[in-house]
Amino acid sequence: MRFVIITGLSGAGKSQAMKAMEDIGYFCIDNLPPALIPKLADLCFDSKKISNVALVMDIRGGEFFHDFFEGIEYLKEANYPYEIIFLEASDAVLVRRYKETRRKHPLNNKGNIMEGIKRERELLGDVKKIANIIIDTTGLTSAQLKEQLYNIYVEGRKFSGLIINIVSFGYKYGLPLDADLVFDVRFLPNPFYIDELRPLTGNDGEVQRYVMQNKEASEFLDRLEDMIEFLIPFYIREGKSQLVIAIGCTGGRHRSITIANLLYDRLKKKDYNAYIEHRDIEEG
Q1: Distance between CA 58 and CA 149 in Å, rounded?
Q2: Which residue positions form the known binding site for GTP?
Q3: Torsion angle, alpha carbons of 53, 66, 97, 24, to 10
Q4: Which residues bind ATP (predicted)?
Q5: Which of 239, 233, 8, 275 is nearest to 145 (CA)?
Q6: pLDDT tens per residue, range 123-174
Q7: What's the pLDDT band for 111 if we cut at 50, 70, 90?
Q8: CA geometry: angle at 200 spanning 273 and 182, to 5°?
Q9: Which pLDDT tens digit goes with each residue over 236-276?
Q10: Taking Cα atoms as reference points, which of 132, 110, 121 lies closest to residue 59?
Q11: Which residues are annotated as a binding site for ATP?
């Protein structure tokens, strides 16, 4: 049996995580007071009818949340196996999510969202330290978060802690603001100047073959993959939870998409937590 506790910052995606765990087949309980962890654990581990359980706990528990560590200590003493998933996101994204939903932060009654977020980070600091898995949902959709949980709890993949977002873009529309690494592929032959290829994109085989027939393209892709794999362990060691790799060409429709797709395919085959976005595919 797997006993999973989902916690983290308000607005970071705990509700979406719970829905995902329900879809996977877990028995889920939302907003359980931590003081009830011992009784629930005894019930679940003694029962032959419950196979997997996921609990969502957060700051909504108010004063009950201070019982969290006592509950965890009980699980340890009883030798009950458990896992803690901690969800977080950047301040900017949390503020945006609260404004979109028009909800009030549970730790601030005066409407100052940032003050509530700051206070919550402080209160949950020790909880984050003991988490088995920390997922930064800043750049994740609900579907991508579900995929992360599916990979861990269904396919049994080890979570490295680093989510890799590959973004193709066009320089004429500006650099992605959240990019950690930026690569310029404007040195490659441009399909835009081939009449039959102009209306297509790097998602089309004809464009990919045109771009990759150039030996420099293949060599660049090989070296790019090697460099990314070299860097990943160091980012993980430093505690980085999200890596954004931006690949740009002039318009963001042909060369950048081709290289981004091929890099994404290579990383996914090696079981990295990679996602891809073609930011400017609809432009031009």
Answers
A1: 19
A2: 58-61
A3: 0
A4: 8-15
A5: 275
A6: 899 999 999 899 999 888 888 899 889 888 887 776 766 889 999 999 999 9
A7: low
A8: 40
A9: 877 777 899 999 999 999 999 999 999 999 999 988 888 89
A10: 121
A11: 8-15
Pairing of strands 274-278, 163-170: parallel
**Alpha-carbon torsion (156, 158, 163, 164), positive or negative:** negative
Residues 6+ apart with CB under 8 A from 192: 198, 250, 251, 253, 254
> For 194, which DSSP code?
S
Binding-site annotation, residues: 8-15, 58-61
| pLDDT tier at 62, thresholds 50, 70, 90 | low
Fold of the 2-153 domain: Rossmann fold (3.40.50)
Whole-model pTM?
A: 0.72
- CATH 3.40.50.300 location in the chain: 2-153
Give the mean pLDDT of 180-185: 96
> Which helix (H) or strand (E) element contains residue 30?
strand 27-30
CA 46/CA 103 separation, integer angstroms: 39
Tokens describing residue 80: 């009950």
The CA distances from residue 206 to 32, 184, 188, 280, in Å, are: 54, 21, 15, 19
| Residue closest to 192 by CA, chosen among 171, 176, 173, 207 | 207
- Tell me how far CA of residue 18 lies from CA of 8, 21, 182, 250, in angstroms: 12, 5, 35, 41
